[in-house]
Amino acid sequence: MTDFFYETITPNRNLPFHLLIHDTGEAHQVLSHWHQSFELAYVISGENRNFIINDQRFDQLKGEAVVVNPYKVHSLNLPKDHERIAITVMLPNDILTASNVTAATRIQNRIPDDGHLQRLFTTLYQTTRHLKDSGTQAEQIGLVYLILSRLVSQYSSVNPGKQLPKISAQMDHLSPVITWIDHHYQEKNHGGKTCRHCQCLGKLFRPPISKIFAPDAACLCYKASPVSHRKTAINNF
Does the bond joining 207 to the residue before it have cis omega, within 30 degrees of 0? Predict the structure, then answer.
């Protein structure tokens, strides 16, 4: 059985996206998971080794941008490498909607030698080395929009009507619940608001939802112990 996770994208404080810097050089494993939206990765120095997107394994090299498209299962198994400095940008759907990027948009996975993107990502990394203030955050937001613009204008395609037919049918059921979780999972008391979705979702999960979540979970809106970003287990989806 293949296990993977749905991971919500929780923006950083005062930013409309989630920005991560990886610079400890320690060995690290990122389990297989997927998002509703895009994840952007860039290597400043060293390598992101053992990057897997939909069972395709590769090493992300210095200066290479990698784009994980929506619904694509991906993982990382990084060995110790004290030269490795990498940056990850996770884009919530709100940014795509504001940028008029549709769900049918697919961006090229690997972009190794785009000097313009390299400069944008490097500048974005450099802003994280400064004392944070409103000006720094405004610069970071502008850089991410420029990166997204470059990716969409130069490396994307749209395939309406033919994109992921199997997942599209399943997402008709999943999307309302996922969207609700993304916006409300931090609330203390959900009041069973999403229970009406669980009857439909029960057909899509093996094992049943009652076994995936904690024993006393009444529905998908169950609030587990606080975490930095919420992961929901989905088996054989």
Answer: yes
β-strand 110-111 against 65-68: which pairing, if any? antiparallel
Q: Which amino acid is at 58?
A: F
Instruction: Name the token pair of 188.
Output: 């203390």
Q: Where are the alpha helices (DSSP H) in the chain?
A: 93-98, 115-127, 134-155, 165-184, 195-201, 209-212
Mean pLDDT of the chain: 77
Do the beta carbons of residue 2 and residue 68 sit within 8 Å? no
CB 99 within 8 A of CB 148: yes
- Please state whether the predicted TM-score (pTM) of the whole model is above 0.85: no
Calpha distance 133→43 (Å, rounded): 25
Distance CA 30, CA 119 (A): 27
CA-only gyration radius of the chain, Å: 18
* Token pair of 102 as six digits: 């549709």
pLDDT at residue 165, rounded to an integer = 44
Mind listing the pLDDT tens digit for each residue in 162-181?
A: 445 445 455 555 555 566 65
**Chain position carrying tokens 């400069």:** 119
